[in-house]
Fold this protein.
Amino acid sequence: MSSTPGISIRTARLSDALAIEGITSLYAEKGYMLKRAPENIIENIRNFFVAEKDGSVIGTCAISFFTLRLAEIRTLAVLDSFMRCGVGSMLVRQAEEVLREEGVTTVFVLTLSPDFFLSMGYREVKKEMFPQKIWRDCTNCPKLMACDEIAMIKELDRPESRTSE
Ligand SMILES: CC(C)(COP(=O)(O)OP(=O)(O)OC[C@H]1O[C@@H](n2cnc3c(N)ncnc32)[C@H](O)[C@@H]1OP(=O)(O)O)[C@@H](O)C(=O)NCCC(=O)NCCS
């Protein structure tokens, strides 16, 4: 993976909410993700991460817990001008790290960018594996009956098994 110097990943702050909304609406308009209203981002701000360069937010992603062991990574977006610089991978790795620390063992995504998630160790599964997601979010989605997103999962290794390697 290539990487760009000077990019850092951190937990989002309330003051990042409008920048997050700006980046995600770019892709929501193109149909890559569901639009998240500013009030929804603000309500969930502690679950967002941002990638920052020179004080500006250039990428974001969020985590969403479903059970004690199952969580989703969602709302992943990197500004066009920083794509293929490793920012998306940095964001997903940070999200996975936090999920692992919380004891999550399985993380899933619903995505139109399967090649990116394949490169991050995810594999395709049937969406029906996640009835919790369907109850919580999909029922309110305009794409419900014609969902084109691909469900992918990754089993997270336990922190102790990684440190002993
Ligand atoms: C998907 C997305 C977040 C990837 O971010 P990124 O910063 O460009 O990804 P990275 O640079 O970390 O890519 C890591 C690897 O993923 C793979 N990859 C990333 N984008 C890819 C693409 N468009 N096509 C094929 N492979 C891709 C490559 O293997 C890449 O490694 P390489 O550049 O060394 O070949 C970004 O393209 C994006 O914001 N897309 C629009 C929104 C979206 O689809 N979000 C996902 C919703 S869940």
